[in-house]
Design brief:
mainly alpha; 7 helices; 72% helix; RsbRD-like negative regulator of sigma factor; Globin-like; RsbRD_N_dom; 151 residues; single chain
Length: 151
């Protein structure tokens, strides 16, 4: 039986393209270029698959590795004009695209551990994106220059 990681890895391009279309249609603040929409999402998907693989092998999934990607995504989305709710909803759209793709593959059983890893990855990325986006917005309102991502 295929795992969620197997299906995400095999269908990463389909998942990404479906998400990209939804973001442009439903969440983007107007027409943005593909690179502007893409941002760090392919890297995020790779880290989610890596976390799922580690869990499959009985290791700690290391979901913290998505945090810096969320931080950078929050900054990028602020800079290209997303509002905060749209940025959060686009992560929800990605989560939905993953589950829809898995469902379409005929996967009848998704392990609770896989769901936990997915939720942990998304929660961490969203929280980091929101924190950084909010800090940048506060700095803008105070007339200060927004600080770059750590690293």
């Amino acid at each position: 039986m295929k795992t969620v990681a197997d299906m995400m890895e095999a269908g990463s391009e389909q998942i990404f393209e479906r998400w990209l279309e939804q973001v442009q249609r439903d969440h983007a603040p107007g027409e943005l270029s593909r690179p502007e929409l893409e941002d760090h999402i392919p890297d995020f998907l790779r880290e989610v698959v890596a976390a799922l693989r580690r869990e499959e092998e009985g290791q700690a999934p290391k979901t913290h590795r998505v945090g810096p990607l969320g931080w950078e995504h929050g900054e990028q989305r602020f800079r290209v004009g997303f509002d905060l709710p749209s940025m959060v909803r686009e992560y929800g759209a990605l989560h939905d695209c993953i589950y829809e793709f898995v469902d379409e593959q005929g996967q009848a059983l998704v392990r609770v551990e896989e769901v936990r890893v997915l939720v942990q990855c998304f929660n961490r990325a969203i929280s980091e994106a929101v924190v950084h986006y909010t800090r940048m917005r506060e700095r803008e309102l105070l007339g200060e220059e927004a600080s770059p991502a750590p690293g």
